[in-house]
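Exercise 7. Given the encoded structure of a 551-residue chain, write a plausible sequence.
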């Protein structure tokens, strides 16, 4: 059986590699458009698959299922609101981006403000990728493989040593793929792995429900519904990781940042043949988001029942459930698609990092006369260096106190709020000067960091000290006291977003841009919108939101 699993793992992984090579063999990877945008040749289905797999990786599957293990389906809000943000991006933002013919979001910021603002934004993106996203992708993938396949026992070494080995193995393979393959190789492999991951991902709740329902999926759902009704409450308690009110403040902002301004996501869409294909791809991905909670939320609730709520860490819920319910004959295939998902997210971010550095920093700061080929080479070298940094950071993510997914979202809050505010104001105003954007991109980050890592701990410690004085020791009561001592980080994001916009508008009032901004229109690609985009977007939004509010 082990031989079959090993063969299926290497067989599927090799198949993906061969198909990716075949699909990209005629693309000129030495040109900027060829390497960074796949020659602007991507179709809707390839874009949708790449978007989904860039988003849906081990950090998403492991992290969200870990939160669902402890809190239930309320965490599905991350997925339902994502679909809404994707529709807004397709209908509103994408036409504006693609008419300007940009390759990166910082390029748009340069056209709207100035080169210095673009540099600041590019550096913020690279910090987010190198210090938060790349390390968490590597760590979550390594944790999943280590736990699912009991690698410490196989290798006869500690869990920590196993994580280090997995991190470096995944990182080295992913770096080779991303740096030497370009966007089209990444996107094609994403599409294949996305199909495999959806199939494999749905199999886990399928077998899990059959296990607890004595062979019946419906029986399994009845057991979960009747024995754990608290897991199906989307409003959650006061101390929940996603209080219901945050859906209307920072949650939608976090989603709009990710789907509407994040370079690693939008780069797939900028590689579209035309605006119509780009819109179709994003909207198709939003439709598939309707199924994603089955993969990233339901298994966590199943794991709560299967393991009686007893696991060393909530983030182990998914890998331990896979070990428990997946037939041995399918382990190799599942390992291959999960490996592909981890590589996809890692590759995508690394390719986007190379794009940001080559396009937005190298030519401006290091070699103004660089050719397209020199820019691509510089981007590849930078990507390799960033990969090494993330490899060194990744194993230490295990020390994150509140779980993997919470660590990602709270850490990104420092960057997502000011970036989204600058892009939003850049699109919808004409007289806000570069000075306003520069103040927000620096002061906005500092304000968030002070709020979360200085003021918040002081307020919480004071509240807990008062609770101790009053003799309160119950864990649940203490968690409620902590939650009420200081606003949730998503609420803070909403507050700071308004403050950041206010700062830019005040600067515009005091020192307006001398020449009002006029959007540039280029003819690089056909920007005729898809005629059914609005109808499809409205239908998907209604379906997704109705599913959420049913609970």
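Solution.
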């Amino acid at each position: 059986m082990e031989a079959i699993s090993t063969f299926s793992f290497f067989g599927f992984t090799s198949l993906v590699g061969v198909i990716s090579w075949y699909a990209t063999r005629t693309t000129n990877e030495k040109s900027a458009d060829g390497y960074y945008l796949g020659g602007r040749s991507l179709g809707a289905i390839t874009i949708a698959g790449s978007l989904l797999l860039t988003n849906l990786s081990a950090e998403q599957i492991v992290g969200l299922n870990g939160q669902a293990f402890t809190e239930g389906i309320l965490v599905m809000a991350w997925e339902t609101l994502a679909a809404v943000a994707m529709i807004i991006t397709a209908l509103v933002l994408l036409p504006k981006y693609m008419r300007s013919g940009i390759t990166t979001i910082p390029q748009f910021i340069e056209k709207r403000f100035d080169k210095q603002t673009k540099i600041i934004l590019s550096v913020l993106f690279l910090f987010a990728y190198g210090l938060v996203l790349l390390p968490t992708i590597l760590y979550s993938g390594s944790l999943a493989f280590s736990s699912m396949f009991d690698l410490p026992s196989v290798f006869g070494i500690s869990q920590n040593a196993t994580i280090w080995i997995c991190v470096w193995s995944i990182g080295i393979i992913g770096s080779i793929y991303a740096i030497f393959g370009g966007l089209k190789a990444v996107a094609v492999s994403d599409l294949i792995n996305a199909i495999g991951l959806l199939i494999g991902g749905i199999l886990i709740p399928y077998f899990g429900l059959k296990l607890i329902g004595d062979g019946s999926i419906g029986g399994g759902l009845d057991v979960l519904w009747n024995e754990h009704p608290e897991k199906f409450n989307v409003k959650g308690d006061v101390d929940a990781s996603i209080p219901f009110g945050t859906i209307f403040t920072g949650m939608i902002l976090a989603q709009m940042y990710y789907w509407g301004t994040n370079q690693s996501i939008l780069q797939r869409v900028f590689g579209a043949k035309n605006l119509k294909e780009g819109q179709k791809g994003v909207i198709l991905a939003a439709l598939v988001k309707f199924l994603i909670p089955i993969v990233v939320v339901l298994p966590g609730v199943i794991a709560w029942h299967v393991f009686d709520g007893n696991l060393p860490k909530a983030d182990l819920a998914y890998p331990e459930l896979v070990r428990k319910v997946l037939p041995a004959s399918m382990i190799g295939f599942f390992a291959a698609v999960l490996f592909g998902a981890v590589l996809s997210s890692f590759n995508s971010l690394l390719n986007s990092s190379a794009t940001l550095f080559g396009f937005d920093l190298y030519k401006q700061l290091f070699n103004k006369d660089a050719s397209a080929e020199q820019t691509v080479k510089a981007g590849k070298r930078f990507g390799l260096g960033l990969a090494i940094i993330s490899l060194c950071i990744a194993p230490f993510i295990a020390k994150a106190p509140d779980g993997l997914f919470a660590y990602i979202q709270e850490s990104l809050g420092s960057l997502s709020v000011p970036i989204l505010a600058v892009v939003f104001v850049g699109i919808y105003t004409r007289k806000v000067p570069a000075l306003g954007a520069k103040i927000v991109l620096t002061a906005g980050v500092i304000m968030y960091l002070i709020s979360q890592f200085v003021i918040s701990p002081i307020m919480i410690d004071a509240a807990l000290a008062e609770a101790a004085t009053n003799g309160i020791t119950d864990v649940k009561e203490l968690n409620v006291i902590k939650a009420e001592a200081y606003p949730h980080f998503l609420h803070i994001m909403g507050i700071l977003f308004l403050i950041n916009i206010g700062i830019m508008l005040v600067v515009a009032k005091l020192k307006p841009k001398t020449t009002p901004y006029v959007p540039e229109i280029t003819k690089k690609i056909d920007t005729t919108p898809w005629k059914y985009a609005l109808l499809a977007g409205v239908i998907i939004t209604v379906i997704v939101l109705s599913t959420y509010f049913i609970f």
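Remark. The chain has one domain: 2-21+28-395. Students should compare their own answers with the one above.
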